[in-house]
Request: fold
Amino acid sequence: MRNEASVKQNKRRKMIGKWILLIGSAIVAGVVGVFLFASIKVSAAEDAVIAPTPLRISQSTAAALVEKNLNSNNMATLFLSHFRLTYKTMYLTFDDGPSKENTDKVLDVLKEKNVKATFFVIGEYVRKYPDTARRIVEEGHTIGIHCDVHDYSILYANKEAYIADFEKAYDTVYQITGVKTKLFRFPGGSVNAYNKQVCGDIVKELEARGFIYFDWNASLEDTVGDKSGEQLLQSANESVMGRERIVMLAHDRVENTADNLGIIIDAFPEYRMRPLNEY
Reply:
């Protein structure tokens, strides 16, 4: 009888132990979940949440990270480290194209690096280089409207002048690429010395039609003087400042940008490159 009672008692202890383990696991999972959620929130200044994404790091680095945490039996650290390392995103954007040669160079580099970008194109150049415009779309990049003719005095004369130019560029892009884009970028940005009086009315009109405009918060400064690759990279680093989400301005008509794009992309391994339609 004593043995039978002892067996029953052991069973009860095992059952209680299992329940304690289950409850403990649930608590740990909840704590990890809270930390994961907190880790993907960006700074209050950006007022946004970015979904975590895989980091473009070398296989050896990834393997070392996994081995370190597995050896320490610290899976929570592994997951938290992964999320904290991976939510930075950079949106490469190129204005003023397509061009005769340099846009193709840019596309070659993007293809080699497996990076998708956004091109804000000029209508007159799309008509001039239709094959390049089609290549942008065919290779999975996002296309947006910049303008039809890059002349501030004409564009910003009044709201009607801007809309007329926009519609001409939009029709050109649609006819040549088949894309009905919803993205656009103001020449000179949404706030500049030429459009102060009309920008608000333009935004109101185009947003009512379902269009979205994008400025930038970092730049290669590649149209300011004849910069070397080192100077372009310096401009990029100085404007990125380690922020979580970057919209990088570049110009695919600039030869030095095309020639040094691969180096610039490689300089930001902590950022995942994405097109603006995934913003």
User: Anything to note?
Assistant: Residues 31-85 have pLDDT under 50 and may be disordered.
